[in-house]
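Archive transcription. Copying these from loose printouts into the bound notebook so they stop getting lost. Printout 1 of 2:
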Amino acid sequence: MLANFIGLLGIGVLVVASAAAAQASKPMKSDFVLTQEFIYSEAPFPSAHASTIVEPRPGLLLAAWFGGTNEGNDDVEIWSSRKQPGQPWSQPSRLTETPDIPVWNPVLFQDGDRTWLFYKVGPSPREWVGAWRTSDDGGETWSDAAYLPAGLLGPIRAKPIRLSNGSWLAGTSVEAGYRWDSPADAPYRIWTCWAERSSDKGKNWTRHGPIALPSEAFGVIQPTLWETSTGEVRMFMRSTERVGRIVSSTSKDGGRTWSPAEPTGLPNPNAGIDAAKLRDGRLVLIYNHTVQGRDVIHLAVSLDDGDTWTEPHVLEEGQGEFSYPAVIQSEDGLIHVTYTWRRTHIRHTVLDHSKLPG
């Protein structure tokens, strides 16, 4: 498989979507959507998923995702692209080299001048380990790969947050008890969320939880976090279709202990979500506001730290999949959203925060 992949690189890049295919989706052009574009038009991989984005310094954007022949194949690696102010996205650059095993779910996190890339290595989400690299020059060069101890996974899909006391808090989760052919209703299928906390800038981590639905063991993964105006931490979680709702939990002690998880009123079709707390106090959530399928992706805004939400606004809809979002606010106040586009591209959408609903 590796030889085939290298051969593919040798003969040039693949065109991963045609203009006709691009026209089949319906990106929205509301007054707060400034631009929507693909991060790349051509790439040396046919399939891409699970993007993440960060601003290493004012005006510079860095995005990453995993790409290969298909999710879970041995040729899947982490790829990245940089966008300088006023310039297009750079061509995809590979950040990992693990030819005998797939990688998964990159997560970018900025702390001062240092950019962290967290990702997973392993044959499946039930067997992966956490890995990380760092960059001190905005993603041009990177440290060697390092690995977390077994039992710690790092941020599983959404970005960590920096608490008001300076500690880092990462939402993580564990999938256990099944394989691809296990019965859908098997009682030993278990999904559970956790929080990993560091008070020394990533040198050491402690694990806190579990955070689970009391009534459904096959329940929640991939949390996104924010700190509220009162100093609590809230967690929203992806759920299985058995649950069908985004699930919530709250910590009053900086992520050390958590309330029992409970479903919110927001639907979730077993798809990734992400939230960002804006500097004006509003909260932006990017998610699929459906009970089944990922063929439409939405934005909603909360003025009360996630207790209530505006009506969902469609960012894109059409044939195929629009999923696994990442969202940040850049130094200039703009909101940047990336998400999977039909498993072939990564879409980058820029929003004007001053015109958001709510």
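Printout 2 of 2:
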Amino acid sequence: MSQDLPDGGFTTVNPHALSSILEASETRSIIASTDIFDIKGIKLWARDQPVSRELQRKLMDRALKKPLETCLIAEDGISPTKLGVLVQSLVETHSQLGPLLQPHAAALQRGAGAIRLHPVVQLLLSAAQTARPATFAHAVEAMAVAGALMKARGGDERLVAQAMTAGLLHDVGEMYIAPEYGEADAGVSLDVDTYRQLVVHPHIGQLLLTQLTDYAKDIVRAVAEHHEHQDGSGYPHRLHGDQISSLGRLLAVTEAALAALRPERSNLHHASMALRVVPGEFDDRIAGPLTAAARTVAPMTARRSLPELRDELARLDVVLQTAMNHLDALMSDQASVGLQRAGTLAHYLLHKLRGGWNESGLWSPGTIGAEQAAEAEAAQDALRARLLEIERVARLAAGPLSPEDAETLNLMCEGLKDEAA
């Protein structure tokens, strides 16, 4: 569990994953499935010996002969049967997701039962359930939503189980970063260091599944792509269109929908809006079943009064244009490659937001009446959330810069933060 996770392997201990495993071992039966040796052949832990905090001391600063994940097993951990129970609970009690999941309840039950849990994945998911319950709950929700979207598109039982497996595994890489850098917390912060930590998790998940498990390549690829967007605005590689697999696009829709459901009082209408507010960002064919399910939900209610909403919409109109003008003023032909890359990407993303604004009909706030207020508010919230992401994306794209270019980037990003505040 390498802290830096180079492509060479998982032979040293990642403290974040180990911490979760040790915390889970206090209430679960996690044992060594084989003797554990360091790279010099010194035996550190015996087969069948329960994991305890003493293991952490013995592993300190040691390279292992085999990755630790392959040497441990959670005897009372997650199983397909337990996943089925969790899916049933979501179908019956999750007020936000129920309308999407309920028509496919039987298929989702069969899909959960067909999921194959590799011992490494079973260990990490079991640890997450105890030590990172929000991360585990998100994985279960993604499993169910991915399965429902696949079934709604006519997928057979094999494809539904494949989609559910990919959904369950999509954030397994988060076990290797500090809990405070998880998606739920990072999504509300403009801290670029947090974002830099977060964006590696799809790649870590891909490395883990490739090197330590035998899952199908389609599933592994989708895990690596679950934050990629069709218009190139995603991460970690900013892939476009057909560069993203069909299963990867399905996971991206799943991830974006669940993110839109995090705020209090949100429902499928908000998820539907988040998936279509920026044209071309997500695959409309995949998102279609969720949009259809949203039509069965009670209409949204606006949180703001109509005058407040109109004022904020008018301000957002100015924000988008001012941010583009500010960016143009700071860029020059003499800028370095890194700064040009950051500026070009930020300008492209702002242009996409402007396109979503124009297509939404929000450009004339005075014409919005009480009956359109809730939808206009949801669109505004979705556009503003995208605006908040641009600073982090630009900094990540820039890479190392000279002091002069770094100052220019700081000015550009400060302008974005000021406009989005």
